[in-house]
Structures are given as structure tokens and as C-alpha cells.
Amino acid sequence: MVWIAILVVIIVIAALGAYWWYISQPTTPAPVSKVISIAWTEGPEFDFIQGKLPQFQTQTGITVNFQKIPRAHIIERLMLEMLSPTPTIDGTVLYVLEAPSLAATGGLVDLYTYKSKSKWISEGFYQDQLEMLEFNGSLYYVPSLWNGALILFYRTDLFASTTLKQAFRTQYGEDLTVPTTPEQLLKVAKFFNDQGYIGIHLQMTTSEMGAGAYTFYPPLAFYYGGGIYNDTTAKITCNSTGSVQALEYLLNLAQYAQPTYLEDGTFEAQTAVMQGQTGGKQLAMADQWSYMYPMLPDATQPWNISERIFPQQPDMLGVAILKNSPKKDYVWQFVNWTNSFEIVKGTTLATPKAPCRSDVTNDPEVRSNYWVNVILNSYGGHKKITPTIKNPHATEIYEAMMKRLHEGFTDPDARTNPHAVAQRVLDALYEDIARIIKY
Amino acid sequence: MRKISGSPLTKEAMIGFLMVTPALAILAIVYFYPLFYNVDLSFSRWPITEGLSKYYVGLDNYQNLFTSGDFQKVLGNTVFFTVTSVPLEFFLGLGLALLLTKEIKGKNAFTTLLSLPMIVAPVIAALAWRWFYQFDFGALNYLLSFVGVKPILWVSDVNIAMYSVIIADVWTTTPFMMLILYAGLQMIPIQLYEAAKIDGASQWQIFWHVTLPSLRTVLVVALMIRTIDAFTKLFDMVYVITGGGPGYATQVLPIYAYKVGLNFFDLGRGAAISMITLMFSAIMVAVILIARSSWRK
Fold first, then answer.
1. Which residue among A84, B1, B139, B153 is least packed, with the fewest CB closer than 10 Å?
2. Cβ contacts (< 8 Å) between B248 and chain A: which residues?
3. Contact list, A281 vs chain B (CB under 8 Å)
């Protein structure tokens, strides 16, 4: 019995040793196949590209395999890929907020090595959009995917109502019009709220990065001359006068929003717009993504859209190339194709969203859509796109910001003394950022 | 037992030892290596997002955590969750298990129904709860409206969100407690109850002096498993229902470790959070074991 047991152990150890020896043997590099693997996600634009993919494969002889990963989890997978000497992913979709962390690892290919900045611009790419994605003079992807814009949705029936118009004139001595400045928005939202409506639908959740409060506070702080953190000067600006003013404004505006403004996600927002009401009250306005525009004809109430009142953060997604991939040149061909006129036009019309190329904007088919100017003016036109923090710690800084904003929104004094609350939570955010940067 | 010459082990012990060696080797690779690697990582900084290599920082990660208000809040949340949910699950599970020992009509169907939450995948259960708690369309607010209760912000009110998660967790894990205690109750010899009845013991006295002491071992095991689970594995329920929010109201250690390690890519601090989680759960288990031995005396 002892001998059998010893034999079993010897066999197991020998098998492990043999396997170890086998995998440690240097292998002759296999010829690089024309099959590339791209970390991919889901959405109308992705469906459009997938539909067009046979065209690309026929033209180039490159086979593209999409590895579908929920977008929020792509970065975790990528970090592991970048540490791996034998990556299984050659390229990936990448979001603007995650780009600084990945760019700082040095694991992404600079697209300017394939095509110079001037060449990109001469091909029609918007310079401001490219620069939004530059890190230390390098470009890692182009926003050919997403680029959704936040715009103002308003109820045409309410803004045309004689009774409401008269009431507004009586209260403020002026005409009821669709607001164009933050101050007007506050006034109009308050007016509708006083009339028994939900003044404005805000999606201000603090638990979803890239959406919710993240889409309000930084651009508004920027609008009022403040900020969060300045990468160039390494100065924390989150409790500057403009930043405090921005939060104070949001605390005031939130009073006229739906009670679930800190909870609602995209589904709830979409439902509220489509039904024209939320929580049993009619909705007057909504700050929402441009992709909802094509749904409006099916809404139960009449809506129209106009420019967003304040600027916004970039919502940019594109395809980046992993430096440790042996198939970088093939991935570049795919990247170049996804940025082509035809594909950008298709993805722009599929959502709709802001195109990243001016030739797509000027295309008659695209131009004929009412939403084009509204979106572009809200996203880089009249309203400049607010730069994001380009620091490896950006995600942690934004996370701290969301946490402190939530404290502000739920503070019992938020309505009675918004300025003091804003100052207090932003001073606390200053300490958080100082700790993050120092650590 | 024959001893092998020159060895302190008997032949049977030696065979046993050799037999388990392959399994131990595999365990060492898949369990102990990551554990020791995690310990090593918790004393280091590895700023992968800055393209730098790993270096040792001693106790810096731990010091940083214990002086961080966020971590203290998260630790407090996790302890609160554990000390609230585990006793709730225990008492509910014990009550249901005692109910199942009675001869009731349709007992098997009742047992199956009560066990259903345990069968459902945690993520699916969490999704169902998320919809149940939804403010506008959720079934809970709808049902409460019939008794005149105004809609409640179940998951976005900082004062309510943690209780919402606890309720969902209790719903999911009480069947486990119920089944394990029910199995324990089945093992108590009927003669003990008969003897107690002959001695004139009341129902309460029988429960206190016969049932509970006889359940001791099962009870300790059940409490230990659930305490460890609640403290170290509370991820899916919170992640799906609240995502750790609103603010940090339902942020718990496993989610925080994930966030710091894989969202902020601070692997050293993430590893330190995991080690602290492990230490705290070890302390909790030790407390249960000490309580058990003092109970025995």
C-alpha cells in the first residue's frame, strides 16, 4: 500500500515537472495570423459596425473577433492583458475616463505614430475632440463611438400653454421661453415646480461614473470659472469660488427635480421622458442624452429639444491598440476603418450623437437632421467640451467627487443654506484629492 | 498500529499523508500561493497606472487605510451589516426550522417554498430586489400604496439603503440557516424530549435546556459560515442593488477592496483591505468559538 501511494506521488510530481518543462521550452514564433481580437461592448453603434464588418474583412483579409465585455469592466480586463506577455486582446474600446490610467501605463499605441495630428485634422477630424483625448502629446483613440451629447428636452405643449405663459408673465414680468442660461433654467424650473409640475428631470446619481452627477458638476464648475483639479498646474481647484457657485447652483436646481434624481438611471430617465411624467407628476423639462431624440415621436407627450444649458464632459469611446499585441498593424487598419467617413456617418445616424468628423457633419443626409446643430452646439460648438482630469488617479478623484457631491445633495441644510453646504463638502473634497495625489 | 522503522509515523499515517500530498500540492498552488502573494502585496505599492514596478512600503497601506475616513465608514458598514443580518437570519432560520419539526399539512411543499431563495443565483435575486425596491415602478411601493404609505426611496435614501440590502440578504440566506438548523433538530434523540416531558418541563424549558444545547455544534457551524460569508463575501447583493451607494452608505469591504484594487488600480491598498477583511472575520469566528467553549463549561 505504501509503495502504491509513493508511486502515485511520484507520478503526479513527474507529470507536473514534465508540464513545467514543456511550457518553459522556447518556441519558434508562429507567423502572425491575420486574426485580431478586440475587447468590444454592446450598443447600436457596435451593432452597426458588426453589420459592416464583412466589408472590412473582405477588403483587408483581416478577421476580427469581438470579445464582448460589459463596458464598465473592460478596464479590469485590460490591466491584466497589459501585464501579460502573451495578450489575448489586440485592441479595445476605451472610455475617456479610463484613458488616463491606461495611457499612463505606457501600454497603448500612440496613434500619432501612424498618422500625424495635422493629417487627422486635414481629414476632417475635429481638433478640439482629438485634443480632449491627448495625453502628453500622444493620442490613443479617436471618439468614433459614443460621443453622445446631453441636450435639453422640453414639453412643447407646456411652453405653448396660454395659461402657463400668462402665469409666468404675472410672476416674472417676462415671456415664458425655453431657457438658454443656467439662471433662466433655474427660474423656469422653479416656475413649473410652483405650478405643480416636475420642473426638470435630472439624472444625478452619484454611483455611476461617466453619468449622473459627473455630467453636471465638473462642467458647471468649469462654466463658473472653477474646476476640480488642474493637471497643468497640479493645483486642486475644487473649492474655488466658481466650483462652490456651481454646487450651490445644483443644490438649488435639485429642489425642482424629481424626488429620485439621485437614484434614476438611464431606464428611469427614458421612461419618464416617454411618459412625460414621473412619480405621478407631469414633467416640464429633462436634461438627457441625445440618443433619446428618435424615440420622441412615440412619447405620450409632445417634446422638442434644444441646446444644453451648460457645457458638458466628453463622452468619448473609441478603439485603442495594445502595445504588447504582435498584430498592432492589423489593429491599426481596423481602427482606421472604424474612423472612416462611412463608419462615422453610420454610427452618428445610428444613435444619434455628435460626429467626430466635420465631413460627416456636412454630409447632406446627416445635415438634414434637426438634431445635428442642437447636438454639436451643445457639444463643442456654443458650449465647449469640458476637459477631464488627465491624471492616473483620475478615477479615484472623480469617485471622491461623487461621494462628496452626494453628501451635499443629502445634507439637511442643502435647501436652506446651499452656499455653506457647498463650501463644506468641497473643502472636504479638497482634503480627499490632496490625500489621493499625495499617496 | 505498526510504526515504520526510524519514523515517528505509523504505516497508516504515512499512507494517509502520502495520499493527501497531491491534493495539498494543488491547494498550495491555488490557495496558499495567492494568499501569501496577497500578504506580500499588502506591504507593497505597485503603481501600475504609472508604469512603475512594485516596491515595499512596510505598513503604509494599513496606516493609510486606518486613518482614512472612507475606510472607517466602510468597515463600520460591514460590521453593522454582519451583526444585524446574521442574528436576523439566525432567529428567522431557527423559528422556521422549529416550525418544520411540527407535523403540519403540506410540510414538504412549505419546505421547498422556503428554500427557494437559496436556490436562486444571488445576482438574479439581487436584480429582482432592485426592481422590487424601484421607486416609481417597484412592487414594494405599489403594495404599500394600498395601505396609504407614500413611496419610499428604498435604495437612494442614505438612512434606508443599508436596511434594504439587509432585508434582501436575509431573504436570500435565511433558508440556509433554516435547513442547517432543521438538520440539526432532526438529530436530537426523541428520548430527550420524552424524558423532559416526563419530568414536567414546559415548552420553553424543553427548548432552553434540551433543544438549544443539543443544537450547539450545528448552531456554531451555521453562525460561523454565515458570519464569514456576510463579512467577506457580501458583494453581489450590494453591487447589484445599490452599487455601494448612495454615497458610501452601503459600501462594504469586499466592494471597497474591488474598487480600490481594480478601479483605482491601487493593488497594494486593495490587498491590505482584503487582509484586514480576513483578520476581522477570523476575530469574529474566534469570538464565536470562545463563546461556544464557555457555553460548554
1. B1
2. 403
3. none
No. of helices (H) and no. of strands (E), chain B: 14, 2
Cβ distance of A76 and B262 shorter than 8 Å: yes
Is residue B6 packed enough to be buried (19+ CB in 10 Å), middle (13-18) or exposed (0-12)? exposed
Q: Is the peptide bond before B117 cis (omega within 30 degrees of 0)?
A: no
| CB contact at 8 A, A322 and A92 | yes
For residue A137, the model assigns a pLDDT of: 92
Q: Measured in whole angstroms, how far is the alpha carbon of residue A119 from the centre of its chain?
A: 26
Res. B4 pLDDT band, cuts 50 70 90: low
Residues counted in chain B: 297
d(CA A283, CA A299): 12
A12: which chain B residues are within 8 Å (Cβ-Cβ)?
21-22, 25
Q: Is B29 on the interface with A (CB under 8 A)?
A: no
Residue among A294, A307, A309, A300 nearest A157 (CA): A300
Digit-coded pLDDT (tens) for B49-103? 777 788 999 999 999 999 888 899 999 999 999 999 999 999 999 999 999 988 8
Interface contact B245, partner A, CB < 8 A = yes
Tens-digit pLDDT profile for residues B196-220: 999 998 988 999 999 988 888 888 8
